[in-house]
Design a protein that fits this description.
The protein has nine helices and ten strands. The chain is α/β, with parallel strands linked by helices. Belongs to the universal stress protein A family. This is Nucleotide-binding universal stress UspA family protein.
Length: 317
């Protein structure tokens, strides 16, 4: 699903996707699968479970390097495991297909998303540090740079799945000129699930500039993101302003509201990389949240605010 301009953009397609691509390394299915099944049932979607077998560099034994695992055996073992997973999913009443391909994870996932016209990608995050964290951030960065669909991450602190579905959604926003897209996505998700939506803006004195330090302006801007006929909405929408550290306030609000889902917009061009301060914030939210985090790249056709990169770094929509 590729959106190339604002006129073609329709967040309702992402709120209730026909196909959800589930990216797995086959060690994370115990945590990932319940969320995948729950999201598929909520959206009445089919699942496409994807496993990428990374290319291994095999050298001549004389070089002293140890050859990588047999790619044929790795593929065979992965396909057998995928058959088991597919059977588990279908027992829950959800249509499912699988794919095992050789290649780098981000490339394989993007390829499958394009082929299936999927409206969401679901993946597990492990809260790792150092090099492993950097690799995970690299894959996430590539997906957000090249996919025009939301990426939902399940972190290590994510609570179990409720059979009752979504009840409360948190949407932190940077109030930038392109925040409308993700706000509409959060609103569509709330309406489809009859869930309460909380719109959050965090005042940060160390980086904010006028008029973003003005609480009155912030409230007005939050309200402007909502439909004029607010009383006709199927579920309540609340606005909230906090002051302090961006990561801490988002996580605190998610806890206070017992959020089932966090929806946030990102600009990967503004250093989503885990070593950057903005990237660390987004990664930390994904890794520390006790609910799934749906991250969405602002679509092509929405102008970026280049004069205030610190204010809108990473968490935008």
């Amino acid at each position: 699903m590729s959106m190339t301009n604002q006129a073609d953009f329709n967040t309702s397609l992402f709120a209730a996707p026909d196909t959800i691509v589930v990216a797995t390394d086959l060690t994370d299915m115990a945590e990932l699968l319940p969320h995948a099944i729950a999201q598929a049932k909520t959206a009445h979607a089919v699942l496409k479970i994807v496993h990428a077998i990374a290319p291994e560099m095999t050298y001549d034994p004389e070089s002293g390097m140890i050859p990588g695992p047999d790619p044929l055996k790795a593929s065979r073992d992965a396909r057998l495991r995928m058959l088991e997973i597919s059977h588990q999913v279908e027992q829950q009443g959800v249509s499912c297909s699988t794919a095992v391909r050789h290649g780098f994870a981000a490339d394989v996932i993007a390829e499958v998303v394009h082929e299936t016209d999927a409206g969401r990608v679901l993946a597990r995050t492990h809260g790792r540090r150092g090099i492993k964290r950097l690799a995970l951030g690299s894959v996430t960065l590539q997906l957000l740079q090249h996919l025009d669909v939301p990426v939902c991450t399940i972190g290590p602190r994510c609570a179990g799945v409720s059979n009752a579905g979504l009840h409360r959604i948190l949407h932190p926003t940077g109030l930038g000129p392109d925040c409308d897209a993700t706000a509409h996505l959060a609103l569509d998700l709330a309406q489809d699930s009859r869930a309460e939506l909380t719109m959050l803006y965090v005042l940060r004195e160390e980086t904010a500039v006028e008029p973003y330090l003005d609480p009155d302006y912030s409230f007005e801007r939050l309200e402007s993101l909502l439909p004029a006929m607010r009383g006709d909405l199927w579920s309540p929408v609340r606005t909230r302003i906090a002051a302090g550290n961006l990561e801490e306030e988002i996580l605190r609000c998610a806890k206070d509201t017992s959020a089932d889902l966090i929806v946030m917009g990102v600009h990967p061009a503004q250093s989503f990389w885990p070593g950057h301060s903005g990237g660390k914030t987004a990664y930390a939210i994904m890794a520390a949240a006790t609910c799934p985090v749906l991250s969405f790249r602002v679509p092509a056709g929405y102008s970026m605010m280049t004069s205030q990169p610190e204010q809108h770094a990473c968490v935008l929509g």
